[in-house]
Design a protein that fits this description.
This protein is α/β, with parallel strands linked by helices and about 350 residues long. Helices cover about 35% and strands about 10% of the residues. The strands form two sheets. Strands 1-5-4-7-3-8 form a six-stranded mixed sheet, with helices on both faces. Strands 2-6 form a two-stranded antiparallel sheet. The radius of gyration is 21 Å and the shape is globular.
């Protein structure tokens, strides 16, 4: 068993990067320069192929999209949890377990994600052909890890559960390297480095790791010397939560026809049932990463629901959607009266205020 990597949360740069991030790209940038890489390029980290970790052959043809992916998506596996085994052997075992689950329990042709990152910092190829296709830089392998968006994304499963605890240093460092390499190969901007919850109503990649995505974008942008953009995203609401965003969501659910939803700002059973009903009625595709098999996320209200309900509306007018807008406008300390019609961006700004 390899020794457990340490982790230091002290900030080290004005941009708010941690010592972990500095270590990830400090010597690495020097390596890139010594290797003669062009500006905006990143070296390929060590990635173990499907052959190296002993993957089963796929049960069907691998689909290779004839275009670059638009997004890099970060996941966490949830199960088997936060082990202290940081060895390469453990990384290979995790890769095999994920593939077996996806093929035997879900009936997929192969591993769902394109790459897996272990707690010890070992990166493995997930779905066959992903590594060769990434090296080509013009196409990408279609996976099965983000519901409704698999033709657009390249996904990374990070071993562990990151709802309440942080990632190990080794995992973080390898994640920065892998994402920077992907971004440089495909010309993906930092704004399009996303978490799974930015597409589907899921906890994934865990609140803690998701909260570090701005740091990840900054680290990658600094490695590549590219513009760093921090996009606004739709928030995730879960049963048991309270507050103005929940109240706004309740008004929007009522606006969609779920008239039995209370407007008390408490995400209780009636609100959960309304969300579940909406998902079924609108045919919202279930999210598909490894984490979703190990946690009950029924009734979560996130990125695939907000855009359906948060329609253009002027706060203060006589509709449930307008009442939702007024709740958020008032919570932000702005006056509802006289406010202009809310665009998608305005909804996001109020929800993130």
């Amino acid at each position: 068993m390899a020794g457990k990597p340490g982790f230091d949360r002290r900030t080290a740069l004005k941009g708010g990067l941690t010592v972990t991030a500095v270590g990830a790209f400090g010597s690495w940038t020097a390596h890139a320069a010594n290797a003669g890489l062009a500006a905006g390029a990143a070296p390929e980290p060590t990635i173990y192929s499907t052959a190296a970790w002993g993957a089963r052959p796929p049960s069907g043809a691998i689909t290779i999209e004839n275009h670059k992916p638009t997004y890099i998506v970060v996941h966490h596996t949830v199960d088997p949890g936060n082990t202290d085994d940081f060895s390469k052997e453990r990384a290979f075992a995790i890769s095999k377990a994920i593939q077996n689950f996806h093929m035997d329990s879900r009936g997929w042709i192969d591993t769902g994600q394109q790459f897996t990152n272990s707690r010890g910092g070992y990166i493995t190829e997930g779905r066959h052909e992903s590594l060769k296709t990434l090296r080509g830089g013009t196409k990408h392998v279609q996976g099965a890890n983000v519901g409704g968006h698999n033709s657009q994304v390249i996904g990374i499963e990070n071993e562990g559960l990151y709802v309440d605890v942080d990632v190990p240093k080794a995992l973080w460092d390898s994640l920065v390297k892998l994402v920077a390499y992907m971004a440089s190969q495909y010309g993906i901007g930092t704004a399009n480095i996303k978490g799974h919850r930015d597409f589907n109503s899921t906890e994934c990649p865990g609140g803690v790791l998701y909260g570090r995505l701005p740091e990840l974008r900054t680290a990658v942008g600094n490695v590549l010397g590219t513009q760093i953009e921090q996009p606004l995203e739709w928030p995730l609401l879960k049963p048991g939560e309270t507050g103005p965003r929940v109240l706004a969501a309740q008004h929007l659910l009522r606006d969609s026809g779920a008239r039995n939803v209370p407007t008390d700002g408490v995400f209780g059973q009636s609100t959960k049932d309304a969300v579940t009903g909406l998902v079924a009625a609108r045919g919202i595709e279930a999210h598909q990463c490894t984490a979703s098999a190990h946690a009950d996320e029924t009734g979560f209200f996130g990125a695939d629901i907000w855009p359906l309900l948060a329609r253009p509306v002027k706060p203060g007018t006589d509709s449930e959607a307008a009442r939702a807008a007024a709740v958020l406008t008032d919570a932000a300390g702005a006056r509802s009266a006289g406010a202009t019609e809310l665009s998608t961006q305005a909804w996001k700004e109020l929800l993130n205020g």
